[in-house]
Amino acid sequence: MVAALGGCVGTVPARLPSLASPISRPPTVAGSPAVRGPLSSVGGPFLHDSQGRVVVLHGVNAVYKLPPFELYPAAGKPWDFTNADASLMARLGFNVVRLGMTWKGLEPGTAPLNDPAICTPGTPHDPGQFNQGALDGYLGKLAQTVALLGRFHIYTLLDMHQDVYNERFDGEGAPNWAVCTDGLLNTEAPGRWSQNYGTAAAGAAYRHFWTNDVVGDLQGEYDRVWAAVAGYFRGNPWIVGYDPFNEPFSTSLVSSGDEQFDGQLECFYTGTAHLGVPGHGAPAVTCPRNDPSRGVIPQILSADPLHLIFYEPDIFGRRGSTNFVGAMNLPDLVFNVHVYCTQRSGKTGNPTNVKACATQEGHSLNTRSEDRTDLASPAQPRGPAWFVSEFGATSSPALLDQLTAEADRALVGWTYWSWKYYGDPTGSAAEGLVTSEGQLRPTAGALARTYPEAIAGRPVSISFDPTSGAFRLVYVPDHVVRAPTVIFVPTQVHYLSGYCARVAGGSVVSRPGSALLEVANAPTKSSVTVRVTSGSCTHR
């Protein structure tokens, strides 16, 4: 039935699998997607679809950091990504996956580390490592995963992933030929893998990349590969955008302060011909003299003007440090942040103090929200939209309950880190949402949330209680928008006895019990409130 204005809809579903159901359940896809096609970031905190609705993305990271450096359907292989994976993601309500790829996978090359033909200081030129066949083979497999996710109505955010630059430093990302250490040997740093960021050899490798001061044209090749990726996926309706560089780092962050490196980072993003302004009163940006005139973002936009660029501040922004990457006068930008705390186990990454961790991460989220408004440019007069592409990395439901509630309060979308633990060299088994046995961890209860995927208006507040299933959305309707508001309701997780939807200022127009609750705005109302509670309306 369809409820009248201000009415309610209730349903009692059939017996459904529990939260701990294995991912081998046969996959299903029903109905039309809540959102599809390119999204836009024209100015202001929100993403929009082609119909003018505000779009909220919830999802997960899926990154394979070992050879072949990507996830795709490959039965029996540890990097196998299956229908069952995508099906479970869809049942949890995820509409986006931040899918990892690496420069090494895209342009493996043949030259060794510290090759003088590449690492000698001088004017950059083509290092001769690009191979179209290798690139096409890698992208063809990546495209299989993008298509598989799309069949389950899930967007892909392509993430050029790296941690500590290369395997030489116990990380991953750059190809061997792009590692220039000035002959310094790597020394294993004691403790957690992230301590390797501070070694002299890793510092030299990063420095040569960010200053682009060797003949191998490291940044130029990086940009070239990104343009090839963007051109390959141009027009793909299930690509939401591109993340140019995961967690940018330089030892100058440690020795000199963020503003020095963030200037180099802004040069990398824009190129010398499109340079923006520094943030928070930092000195004027002066680019390294060999940086490309067109940086990685203009190169991507030139190859694919249809999709978004989710650019990141430096690595310490995830703990609330000041972001000095300022406004960049380029279109389609999304301010893409990570949120982690310092109170974490050196072995598992789990919080050692949940309350302190949640407090710090809430502060970081507030700081990044304030940063966003300072990033306005002529291309995005009210600043770029924003998004949290990494948070969590924990098996603590208590922490995730608090962090997801904070994200709702901030009206920001997210992708949890991470889907599975694939033997990551820079991670731990505690981070995976799915165990090695294919079972969901209890943390899935905090992530499988009732939330609005598309809002026909401007959101004012979003709240959800995973314990009771109580959800509330308030928004100011946009009467120009004809498409409905669409709310994902995790019927297979939180509402095994059905749900009841009540609307003030609009009406429910979806079928009873649908996992996609659709709401039409009333023509003359100035506010819409949607409430969802567990159980049938008839029992109230």
Write the layout of secondary structure elements.
Blueprint: E1 8-10, E2 47-48, E3 54-55, E4 58-62, H1 83-91, E5 96-101, H2 103-106, H3 116-119, H4 132-151, E6 155-160, H5 200-211, H6 218-233, E7 239-243, H7 252-255, H8 258-270, H9 296-303, E8 308-311, E9 333-339, H10 354-373, E10 385-391, H11 397-410, E11 414-416, H12 444-447, E12 451-455, E13 457-464, E14 471-477, E15 485-488, E16 499-504, E17 506-508, E18 516-521, E19 528-534
Parallel strand pairs: 4-5, 4-11, 5-6, 6-7, 7-8, 8-9, 9-10
Antiparallel strand pairs: 1-16, 2-3, 3-12, 12-15, 13-14, 14-19, 15-18, 16-19, 17-18
Helix pairs in contact: 6-9, 10-11
Structural features, described:
- There is one protein chain.
- By secondary structure, this protein is α/β, with parallel strands linked by helices.
- The chain folds into 2 domains: 1-52 and 450-540, Immunoglobulin-like (Sandwich), CATH 2.60.40.1180; 56-447, Glycosidases (TIM Barrel, Alpha-Beta Barrel), CATH 3.20.20.
- The chain is 24% helix and 18% strand.
- The protein has helices at residues 83-91, 103-106, 116-119, 132-151, 200-211, 218-233, 252-255, 258-270, 296-303, 354-373, 397-410, 444-447; strands at 8-10, 47-48, 54-55, 58-62, 96-101, 155-160, 239-243, 308-311, 333-339, 385-391, 414-416, 451-455, 457-464, 471-477, 485-488, 499-504, 506-508, 516-521, 528-534.
- The strands form 3 sheets. Strands 10-9-8-7-6-5-4-11 form an 8-stranded parallel beta sheet.
- The two termini are 17 Å apart.
